[in-house]
Here is the input.
Amino acid sequence: LKKAKRKLWEKRDVAATFPRRNAYAHKGVHGKALFVGGSFSMPGSIAMAARAGLRSGAGLATVATVESAWPSVAAHIPEATYTRVEEEAGSMVGVIDSGIEGYDAIAIGMGMGRKEGAEAMLRNVLEKSTCPVLIDADGLYHAKQLLDEVSVRNAPVILTPHPGEMAHLLGIKVPELLARPFEWSQRLASERGVYVVLKGPATIITTPEGTQYVETSGNAGLAKGGSGDVLSGILLAMIMQTSSVADALCNGCFLHGKTAERLTEDSHSQVDLLATDVVEGLSQTLRTFS
Ligand code: APR
Ligand code: MG
Here is the structure.
């Protein structure tokens, strides 16, 4: 492995690179996002991701989910449009009827389930789309079988694992990963030509070229189910609004973590903070940066 270039991502970096809203913007300018995921038992993951994406500036959002998750997801996000994915016992097994053309960025995996057959959707997205694709949660479980497809893709692929998911992808144990998180991140990113966001109290962002950034905002209020789904939505929106994928990922992690910090100073505790509070709290953080 070559010696990595490493950098701490600080507030001044955010200020210098954070996307600004153009006064003449229309909804198409800020990107059309597709969110693929959700199942009968996990309808909330995809709802939180899509809502976080819209709150972070995505112009349009489409949610591709199973019919059994759709009512609750749609009730939480009237601003999104919907497309159906075939299901078996409440989990995704098919591909989207309406195709995957015309999107500016796609996030896949949140709450999608681990059913055999779900990987068809991921393969379809990787092969048929030409936009950045972010893979999270159960999508990472399926991605392990599709790493060769990931490697040959021309448009950016962003993997956002927590340590358990990262260890699974690499075929190693979590302690082994955590003993050398920078080295493992660099290996995965450069071997597969992907961006890796290894999440944790300090998040390590690695580019396919091997540059690494560390983003340290956030607190244990985020150690709760759904926080990662919210991050995925934020990251996808930032990718669509920023020319550099690395800047977008670093700023998205900052926005997520700073919002949790601010909420636990002002109105919440780290005990009660919920992922949905972070989504609604984005507004206050964004007001200071855009
Ligand atoms: N300090 C700072 N940030 C934290 C902390 C902490 N102590 N704990 C968690 N976070 C942040 C992480 O950096 C990350 O951005 O919260 C987010 C947690 O993301 P995930 O680990 O993906 O958590 P979650 O959304 O609950 O996803 C769990 O993943 O493994 C699957 O099936 C599992 O559905 C589950 C899902
Ligand atoms: Mg997660």
